[in-house]
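Could you join me in thinking about how sequence relates to backbone shape in a protein? We need material for that, and I hope you will provide a protein of your own picking. Label the sequence line and the structure token line clearly, so we can match residues to local backbone shapes. Would you write everything just below, so we can both look at the same thing?
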Amino acid sequence: MSNQKDFNWEDFDTKGFGEGYSKDKRAEMEALYAGTLNEITEKEVIKGTVVGINDKDVIINIGFKSDGLVPRTEFRDLPDLKIGDEVELFIEEQENSLGQLVLSRKKARMVRAWSDIEAALEHDNVIEGLVKRRTKGGLIVDIYGVEAFLPGSQIDVKPIRDFDIYVGKKMEVKVVKINHTNDNVVVSHKVLIEKDLEKQKAEILNNLEKGQVLEGVIKNMTNFGVFIDLGGVDGLLHITDISWGRINHPEEVLNLDDKVQIVVLDFDDDKKRISLGMKQLTAHPWDALSADLEVGSKVKGKIVNVADYGAFLELAAGVEGLIHVSEMSWSQHLRNPADFVKVGDEIEAVVLTLDKDERKMSLGIKQLTEDPWTKGDMAAKYAVGTKHTGVVRNLTNFGLFLELEEGIDGLVHVSDLSWTKKIKHPSEFVKVGDNLDVAVLELDVENRRLALGHKQLEENPWDTFEGIFPVGSDHKCTVVSKNDKGAVLELPYGLEGFATSKNLEKADGTSVEVGESIEFKVTEFSKDDKRIVLSHTATFREEAKPAAAPKKAKKKEDAPTASAPAEKSTLGDLDALAELKEKMEGGKK
């Protein structure tokens, strides 16, 4: 009994796991257990060891009280992953709702990448990236798993026209900008090249001399020339220094990225503007011209430019001659050179002048045909009195120039256009481009002059008018216009007459007004000057001059067929006058 009383039942009465330990023992055990575990903090990167791999997950031991699971898809870049490998991981949660440790290798790589990128920017490190794709304005480069933007202007020191050639290739770059707000990284490859070019550029500029021959690469083209990269130094090759021949654009003979040999023509004191030449590396084509080429020689070439004053014919690259517009046709009427030739035409010409020292040449194409003024039938074809039809080419104050054929022009004086109508300017009668019938009045072959007339195709009606409008005859006239000196009158048959102011007075003392039709008496008739002077006042004051009446009667007797009809205003009844009236009215229309 006593033995049962001495037994300590509390030593065996355990209420739960671990409750059988004394306080000291418990502390000892907790210290021993804690030494095998790591203290971890969420949202940080740590290293862990692969302890298991299955189809979906990779089991990672990070020294925590439990292992973590990471999807196997996050290890695609490590196809040879095996148990025992050490990897970096990002702790997302120490314990999720299932009591599991949540880890991410993808986020660990991203955190490490941004850390490395920031370090590269801070220490100006060169890093290698993979060009993934092209984008608007540049390229997307993968550096440490982060997509960075490489602007097109930062790819190379020379302009890049085809970005696609870099896709899928590795490229060394430097980080130039980080935008943490948008997680954007901007990199540059150009800065690496520029550093290499600085030494080369300095060496080129120090040794630069006029006449020095260099090799360069065409980096840019414009309509006035090309820019050539000499190795970090740019020079301008002007379009006029590319070829001895005429070119309209550098792309006709050069291509972008071509390597070319050029010579230094000039540069400024700071060597910032360098002028280059290419044609200067070859001999001038004028020096290779045939010795047989002389004035009068026939040559062949291609029209390379057409201007207002003429056209340029290229005989060989760099050898051109000017065909002045006056040497394109025997016609005295100068036209636009484009009427004869156009750029690209291959034609023949005759050398008119030649100066090999000045490298100038004038040519002609009209000389390939016979001068129409020197033809044997010229005198007979255009003899005085012959009739022709020509084209009105030019109008002047004194007349018009009529082209009868190519190279044969004649002058029609304004006074030779009409017998009856007073024409102040040829434009009242014809316009440029009209056809006009003429008769030859005068021919001077030696001086190349031809006088023509249009009215001479008809008989002079003033011979007939002399009998119709004798002095003293009365006619009904219409006042066309008035001025201080008098009035212009319209007579029968479309003729014009004149009456002084004092001869416009009516019987009642008033004056004849414009538009009024009234009787007038002829007081002066001049066939040579084609002038008729009349008076209305004389029609009612005639009685005051009885002495003049017998003379008038006598004059009427001398020309009874003309005066009598005029007084009775029945001139149209006579056959000859009716025919003349019809003819004159037809001409007026």
User: Anything to note?
Assistant: The first strand starts at residue 45 and ends at 53. The CA atoms of residues 171 and 588 lie 92 Å apart. The longest helix spans residues 105-123. Residues 12-17, 33-37, 543-577 have pLDDT under 50 and may be disordered.
